[in-house]
Amino acid sequence: MKNIQPLGRLAESNFRLVQNRTSIQEALALARENHLVILQGERPVGTLTMEEARQLPPAGVRLNEIAWAPPLMAGSETDTLAFCREHAQDLRSVVVLDDSGRVTGLVTLTKLLNVLLEAWEVWNAFFNTLLDTVNEAITVVTENGTVSHWNLAAQEMYNISGQAIIGKPIAGFFEREALATLKMLDEGRPIRQSYHRPRSGTHVLINASPVLSQGKIVGAISSEQDITQVVRLNEELSHASSQLRDLKQKIGPSDDPFNRIIGRGSTIHRTMALARKVAASEATVLITGESGVGKELFAHAIHASGQRADKPFIAINCGAIPNALFESELFGYQGGAFTGAERRGKPGKLELAHGGTIFLDEVGELPVELQVKLLRVLQDKRFYRVGGTEPVTVNTRIIAATNRDLDKMIRSGEFREDLYYRLNVIALEVPPLRERTEDIPELMQMFLQEFALKYNKPIPALDPELVVTLLGYPWPGNVRELRNVAERLAILAEEAPLDTQFLPPTLQRPKPPAPVPAPMSQASVPASHQDLSAEARRILQMLEQTKGNKAAAAKLLGLSRGTLYYKLKGYGLI
Length: 574
Known about the structure:
CATH architecture of the largest domain: 3-Layer(aba) Sandwich
Strand content: 15-25%
Distance between the termini: 32 Å
Number of helices: 22
CATH class of the largest domain: Alpha Beta
Number of strands: 20
Radius of gyration: 38 Å
Helix content: 25-40%
Oligomer: single chain
Mean pLDDT: 80
CATH superfamily of the largest domain: P-loop containing nucleotide triphosphate hydrolases
């Protein structure tokens, strides 16, 4: 209701100022067309609205002979709702004054009530339209659990009409323990992205919050996203994937190297389409993406789909080899180049990849001094072994990958700009797993089958709640992390479907806070609680009196149990 205007903007313009010595007959005549503000000198002492004038019989008295109730007076910028709340017990017409105390308007009770009612109707229209616009099923209940709003999505999801459920206790339609809204009223704690089965065969993700007014819980709202179709599709996908892999084993592996990359979303499809085109060329490729997204998998597929498929594919992790050894690892060394070296020397990765492809993973970790030498190789196609004097010529395609921001590294001087442009002939960006959650079920099934075969165990069935948890997790480690979770589940597989307790701790949803312990006596309240408000101390006193029974304490305090929980949390007692 924040759009209610200040009182000054609600003031009637058709008012007249009259002195209290005016006769009642004259005042009634004036009040046929104007509201009256009655003055004694310059001071307002009463008001007479047109509505009130119709109820006064004409009499031979003057206005100063009538015992007028003192008028309510306010400034023009006074907040309407705050003023009404303050004077709720004795609300009547309000005289509006400017800063100098001069009367500038009159707000009649009729006008005030009409404005408040119109504002309520507008907000209610917006609220109802909002409820029917969103895709989620929205339920609103009052503090006693009665349904006050039930949107169209809820009607479709549960096949219960608004006419049938609005105005009735929600517990009459669902099992109480399955109702998040009632949990809000009982406990006062919000729920976020919680998996829920309100009815058999229905799967939802629920968000719910208590509705608070002046520190008291007056109701609750829940929003339920129907994920039944997602759960069913996962079950169908699991069955279809199992059949497909059995078929692939019978007919042999596919000839397409890109078949190992699973992706259904538009982003990953675009990356795969570009990679297929690049594979047929000899261009240098730079693959970017977060750690664990499968950059090396793309590099393998590009190599295997190109003209060099029958030649070596050599991978080197630029961040895993100490700087002192990296040059000899990349370029090799001549016999006797340093103590402990092979007498005959040793070829480097570049030389071993001659005719094929070298994959420089995490190229952003390459030392600056080696970046110059790598640039020379890209330009001249030749290099010198460590300690060698004869150039080594190679015909090697380079595919590089990084999870770092090379543009930022160039600005900070950590990466050479000329090398960047040599590597970045064709750029491929592999999206993180959190941006293609539609691939998670299929990836999980593939990994589960891989590890079930490895450990000679049956492919585990997954509980729907576990699948929902996998879909909602942000996967900072991307596909690599998902693969690790799949291995864990395959090892822990049992005959019954695996639920969320088998997930690693990082994926498990946080448990609700522990119950509030029974409070101590007032004498033993710690120093940190000594400065609590009178209300907080009274709450502690009632909890002590009821031996920590919060339901009983709430009853003694005249609060709902949910409001008591809310106040305990607000005072830091929970």
